[in-house]
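Figure 3 (text version): structure tokens given as input.
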């Protein structure tokens, strides 16, 4: 009895161990695929192709096992795939900051902290830095401020009692971008260096003198 029971128990344990490994592997693969699927959903054409292929594969798993071999598990899996393809939501049409940067021709997107609007309200913004303009966009990616790069005479960051601030000077005004939290200094320095990288250097003194005489 024991000699008969032990092999059966061993086979059951081995089967359970293999099943556990398969489930863990499938779960890990699913975790890795989720970000890719979410990114795929942002492209309407790719998302439609993915849904069609998933539906065709699911239909194949339903029909082929019943036609050539008796495998109800494969048929059930195929039916689940087909239903998933049919019930998947449509592609996302969300516009991201990178999409907006490409639309405006900006080179870099940086954290702009909070800036004070003309109505006195401070709002968090992202700065889209280009060679000609700097755009400040709010959380809804609406343009709240446009700063021509040619007007920027200086930009510098400094520590304050509340955190860090980047001050951007242009004719008759100074734009301030305030940062709070652990990474305030990092964000402020990145913003300062990014804006400096697109600023045009001033003319040398001799060239300024020649231009004045002309």
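Below: residues designed for each position.
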């Amino acid at each position: 009895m024991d000699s008969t029971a032990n092999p059966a128990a061993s086979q059951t344990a081995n089967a359970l161990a293999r099943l556990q490994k398969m489930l863990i592997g499938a779960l890990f693969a699913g975790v890795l695929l989720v970000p890719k699927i979410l990114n795929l959903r942002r492209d309407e054409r790719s998302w439609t192709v993915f849904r069609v292929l998933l539906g065709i594969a699911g239909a194949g798993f339903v029909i082929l096992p019943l036609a050539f071999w008796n495998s109800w598990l494969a048929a059930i899996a195929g039916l689940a795939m087909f239903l998933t393809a049919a019930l998947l939501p449509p592609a996302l049409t969300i516009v991201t900051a990178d999409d907006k940067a490409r639309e405006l021709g900006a080179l870099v997107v940086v954290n702009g902290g909070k800036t004070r609007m003309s109505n006195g309200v401070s709002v968090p913004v992202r700065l889209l830095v280009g060679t000609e303009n700097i755009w400040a966009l709010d959380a809804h990616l609406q343009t709240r401020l446009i700063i021509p790069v040619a007007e920027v005479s200086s930009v510098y960051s400094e520590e304050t009692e509340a955190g860090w601030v980047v001050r951007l000077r242009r004719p008759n005004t100074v734009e301030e971008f305030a940062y709070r939290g652990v990474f305030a200094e990092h964000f402020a320095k990145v913003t300062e260096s990014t804006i400096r990288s697109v600023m045009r250097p001033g003319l040398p003194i001799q060239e300024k003198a020649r231009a004045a005489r002309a």
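The helical segments are 2-41, 44-68, 72-87, 97-104, 184-198, 205-213.
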